[in-house]
Predict the 3D structure of the following.
Amino acid sequence: MNSWTGWIKGALAGVAMLGAGAAQAAPVEINFYYPVAIGGPVTKIVEDLIARFEADHPDIKVKPVYSGTYPETISKALTAYRAGQPPEVAVMLSTDMYTLIDEDAIVPFDDFVRTDEDKAWLEGFFPVFMVNSEHDGKTWGVPFQRGTTLFFWNKDAFKEVGLDPEKGPQNWDEVVEFATKLTKREADGNVSRWGMQVPSSLTSYWLLQGYVAQNDGKIADETGTQTRFDSPEVVEALQYWVDLAHKHKVMKPGVIEWATNPKDFFEGRAAMITTTSGNLTNIKTNAPFPFGVQILPEHKKRGAPTSGGNAYIFNGVAPEKQEAAFQFVKWLSSPEQAAEWSIKTGYIAAREDAWATDAMKAYVAEFPGALVPHEQIPYMVPELSTHENQRISRVIDDAIEASLTAKKEPAQALSDAQTEADRILEDYRD
Amino acid sequence: MSAMTLSHHAREASFWRVLETGACYLLGLLWILPLFYAVWMAVHPPAYEVRFELLAPLTLQNFVDAWNAAPFARYFLNTFALITTILVCQFVVCTLAAYAFARYEFPGKTVVFMLVLIQLMIMPEVLMVENYRTISRLGLVDTVLAMGLPYMASAFGIFLLRQTFLTVPKELDDAARVEGAGPLAVLLKVYVPLARPVYVAYGLVSVSYHWNNLLWPLVITNSVTTRPLTVGLQVFASPDQGVQWSVISAATLMTSAPLLIGFLLFQRQFVQSFMRAGIK
């Protein structure tokens, strides 16, 4: 800063003071930061919901603030918080919880849950989604836009190679067997269709978690301070994934982009893919062939990771604003709205009663694929979430990438990752 | 004998010339390929994103979809307001500061100039929290001015103009003064006209930087009525789903079109200015 900004500061401070006296006796105003991580008119859907909330609650005004991607949202919210102007509510990754707690940026929901109705609302969420929302016996966030991974296959390709188009592979061995049949090699050795594709750019730990859960292991414990990257279950899981590409040669070697994976599926360059449940509508609209969708194949058991965003209430704002924020979050995640949000965006409604609403029933009857994520809920495991989460997920992502690009053996890559994670998390252990 | 050597030289020269021109075309082609690809994706239905068929059906639907995905008309207006404010303020502040540093003696001049230069070494992102605090104390959060304020006293601009002003012969300055011009008149009649290429070059760098700037505007603004184009573009970054490349391409072309067209129109002036100003 130089003297010139100092000059303008003085001039403008006066203007700011003039404006301060105006907002009295008006309804409580709260800011709501939300990211957009999917296509479609999300900003419109949000504004629509808020208009209805305000009609129900004339004493509260909500200002929706679209805040970019997830990483940009947490940057914006934390910057504003540190500068003393936090938003009242923000939707951020459920895995950001520890970071937010460590920054002292959020307050637990427990302080606002008073009536029996409040309690019933809080207990209505599926427990698996709450693992990434609870710490130290308190609830720090509530599930808002959650997802999981699903398994898709091209029925035409199945018919072509003599597989039953109505039945996807049910376990790891069948995936290899089916994928081997489905992989099509041209005379010149080029592959014109891969049997199986699993995306591995960005947050690939998330897909690894699915394999680890199916292998009856855990990638980390729930204290947020201990990862288990080098445990045998994790090593086997990564080995299986790497083998798809390098041993069985049924998956495109190297890193597979999230963004192009569904495209490869539409174009017939991949016969089976794993991708997010958020892609259901995308695939339904764009796949030029009949497709099948099911929960992830099992190994020792079924398993799949959860993902997505929680709604958090911020620290450092006036109590009546926090209270208003709580009312808003509660309304937003109550059965009717949760169902509506899920239908319009493709995220999973995180409570059983949302699935029992008329709107949801009608939707599922029209599009049975929408029920598949619900079917997977009993097998879901919480997403990797630790202190310093961004660094830890980076470490494991790098290990996965090194293995898939054959720079390191999976066992070696994972043991290196564990050493690094131990170093980072050391400070947070008692 | 001498005629032979000459033609030999000439031939050698023309060989290098051809090679040089060829290399230029190759680099030019490499540079423009992504742009061509973006245009290709933008004017075809999504099915042709990765398939090249010369006769693929053309469509403008992607542009329509992109335009409707966010209030782009308003964002265009905001971006124009933002870069105009920044540019005007930068020119005024930097010109005055550069003039003082170039032609006036005052105690602590070197120290102050060093302090200005230090600003060059600090990434604006590092100062985000502190800037936010300042802006919110000024009561300016969520305004166009807030997006521009941290960039107005540009150290780069001050440095660049000071160096240019230093090259202006002192005799011109003296002559103007003899004619009775005051300090401001000297600045406006002698220094600024001579530095015109530098202003053009610096203006271009500044405009393209602020046209593309995302993080600070996203952080400091909240409403549609203040946010610039780049924030609107973020709507298309949808990691939870497959990305619609054709719509993204259309949106990117749409938002960068004014800059691209402006550059093509004034290409000659820009290139000359850059050569003279020595910024590359």
